């Protein structure tokens, strides 16, 4: 264990601008690190006190990383989402313009692209229309379904024909059994359940898997739109009783309208990509562990990881749960928020905190205010750091890692995630190239949150994003 810490120390130095390897005395000693680690390892969060005594602030002199605000990355006057980008909503989507520009700027011709947190597949689609091959990874089966459909060009004429058949068959079903999952009647009114069940049964009979998946995405959209949830929110909240009384969603019409819209999005993709035939591999795996992406296969990663743990930031699991249950997923597959970064504190890898002096410093500040929140924040970054091991394994020498992150605020302390991920990268074989700051012009992220988790107590969250670009050294 000691050897491990000794190795870490010089790297901490270089990550913070001490590139000549002279680490100031205020830096952590091995003993101090071990004391800290042992305290945390007791499974309590009592052990942060030693950190403040480490005088990390001195060590954390301002970094000299190249960072600039560039308004041309805002795209505030270009909200376009071409091709199949708009087929299904998803929380915290990247804007296609940013994904495309990163691929153009740092990806070579015929690159192999990876998005290790692919969400709804924005990066993958931008890769496909450029003729790149791509891998996408996500733990959320709904994200994989949307990504797959988004990146699979299908003949729109064929989809039109299939839609007519679905509508006819669905209307002819007279009797149907309800699917069984917990609280189904809390989230859907009985007439809605009957119609959704009929649609589902018909969609399942479509023999072509790609066509079937296309209509499953339309179905998932319909599930969301006809549920008793407040539809403008990503978290699962039931509509107010008053509103619910008059809520009688026209399920089949919603499905039909959405299908027609998605077919028109698909014709845009079909017109540019029908002859490209790109290879896109979409993996239901966990980026914290070794994935099936071959070593040194990837030329460029473009990605936006979650902004924090699902419980206190974006709840991908809650957003996806009803769709997944209707699509037949249950058990572990639906418990995405637990498997998401920071879902559980990995007590066996606490030492990874030391990959980033910036992280140690903010954990220390938050711990003084709220130990539990410090623990949650730590759990998230330890998981994110584990993903860097995997990224380092799969990216080629000279390949690029472009990570779009937000610096959210917890308990009034801003988390410098852009610096933290650059620290992580530098400890594991990447060189920081530059960080571009862009404003978030639309409302993809809540502009206010409740850092104290007390109702009514809000403060502004992220108004800008940081695009951190790193190059693989070896
Ligand atoms: C910010 S979203 C990505 C959004 C995406 N860029 C888009 O445009 O739709 C982050 C994604 O990371 C996924 N995720 C969380 N933990 C993960 C893990 N351990 N391994 C792989 N994916 C994970 C979430 O399910 C979510 O889809």
CATH fold assignment of the largest domain: Rossmann fold
The number of domains: 2
Multimer state: single chain
Mean of residue pLDDT?
85
* CATH hierarchy class name of the largest domain: Alpha Beta
CATH level-two architecture of the largest domain: 3-Layer(aba) Sandwich
Largest sheet, order of strands side by side? 1-9-12-6-5-2-3-4
Beta fraction: 5-15%
The radius of gyration computed from the alpha-carbon positions, rounded to a whole number of angstroms, is 24 Å
Number of helices: 18
Fourth-level CATH superfamily of the largest domain:
Vaccinia Virus protein VP39
Secondary-structure element pattern, one letter each: HHHHEHEHEHHHHHHHEEHHHHEEEHEEEE
- Sketch the major β-sheet: 8 strands, mixed
Number of strands: 12
Query: Which stretches are poorly predicted, pLDDT < 50 over at least 5 residues?
Result: 1-34, 36-62, 443-461
* Form type: globular
Bound molecules: S-adenosylmethionine
Write the layout of secondary structure elements.
Elements: H1 2-15, H2 30-41, H3 49-52, H4 56-59, E1 67-69, H5 96-106, E2 112-115, H6 122-129, E3 133-137, H7 141-150, H8 156-172, H9 184-187, H10 190-204, H11 209-226, H12 241-245, H13 251-273, E4 280-283, E5 298-303, H14 316-326, H15 336-339, H16 357-369, H17 371-394, E6 395-405, E7 409-410, E8 413-414, H18 417-426, E9 430-439, E10 448-449, E11 459-460, E12 464-472
Parallel strand pairs: 1-9, 2-3, 2-5, 3-4, 5-6
Antiparallel strand pairs: 6-12, 7-8, 9-12, 10-11
Helix pairs in contact: 1-18, 5-6, 7-11, 8-10, 8-13, 10-11, 11-13, 11-14, 16-17
S-adenosylmethionine (SAM) binds next to loops.
């Amino acid at each position: 264990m000691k050897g491990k810490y000794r190795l870490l120390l010089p790297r901490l130095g270089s990550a913070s601008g001490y590139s000549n390897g002279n680490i100031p005395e205020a830096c952590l000693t091995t003993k101090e690190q071990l004391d800290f680690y042992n305290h945390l390892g007791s499974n309590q969060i009592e052990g942060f006190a030693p950190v403040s005594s480490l005088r990390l602030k001195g060590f954390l002199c301002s970094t000299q990383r190249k960072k600039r605000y560039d308004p041309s990355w805002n795209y505030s006057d270009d909200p376009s989402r071409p091709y199949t980008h708009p087929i299904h909503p998803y929380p915290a989507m990247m804007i296609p313009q940013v994904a495309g520009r990163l691929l153009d700027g740092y990806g070579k011709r015929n690159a192999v692209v990876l998005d290790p947190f692919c969400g709804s597949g924005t990066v993958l689609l931008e890769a496909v229309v450029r003729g790149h091959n791509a891998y996408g990874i996500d733990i959320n089966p709904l994200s994989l379904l949307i990504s797959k459909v988004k990146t699979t060009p299908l003949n729109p004429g064929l989809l039109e024909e299939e839609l007519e058949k679905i509508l006819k068959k669905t209307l002819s079903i007279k009797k149907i059994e309800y699917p069984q999952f917990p609280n189904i009647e809390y989230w859907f009114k009985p007439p809605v359940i009957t119609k959704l069940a009929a649609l589902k049964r018909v969609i399942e009979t479509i023999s072509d898997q790609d066509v079937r998946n296309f209509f499953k995405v339309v179905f998932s959209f319909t599930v969301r739109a006809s549920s008793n949830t407040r539809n403008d929110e990503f978290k699962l909240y039931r509509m107010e009783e008053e509103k619910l009384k008059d809520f009688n969603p026209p399920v089949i019409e919603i499905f039909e309208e959405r299908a027609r819209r998605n077919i028109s999005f698909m014709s845009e993709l079909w017109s540019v990509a029908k002859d490209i035939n790109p290879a896109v591999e979409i993996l239901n795996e966990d980026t914290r562990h070794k994935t099936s992406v071959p070593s040194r296969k990837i030329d460029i990663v473009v990605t936006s990881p979650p902004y924090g743990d699902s419980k206190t930031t974006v709840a991908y699991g809650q957003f996806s749960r009803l769709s997944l249950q209707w699509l037949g997923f249950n058990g572990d597959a639906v418990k995405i928020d637990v498997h998401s970064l920071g879902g559980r504190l990995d007590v066996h890898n606490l030492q990874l905190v030391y990959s980033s002096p910036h992280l140690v410093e903010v954990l220390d500040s938050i711990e003084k205010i709220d130990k539990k929140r410090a623990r949650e924040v730590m759990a998230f970054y330890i998981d994110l750091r584990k993903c860097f091991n995997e990224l380092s394994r799969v990216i080629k020498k000279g390949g690029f890692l472009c990570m779009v992150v937000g610096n959210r605020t917890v308990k009034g302390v801003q988390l410098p995630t852009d610096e933290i991920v650059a620290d992580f990268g530098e400890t594991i074989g990447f060189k920081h190239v530059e960080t571009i700051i862009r404003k978030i012009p639309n409302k993809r992220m809540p502009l206010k949150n409740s850092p104290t988790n007390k109702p009514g107590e809000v403060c502004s969250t992220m108004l800008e994003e940081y695009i951190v670009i790193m190059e693989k050294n070896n």
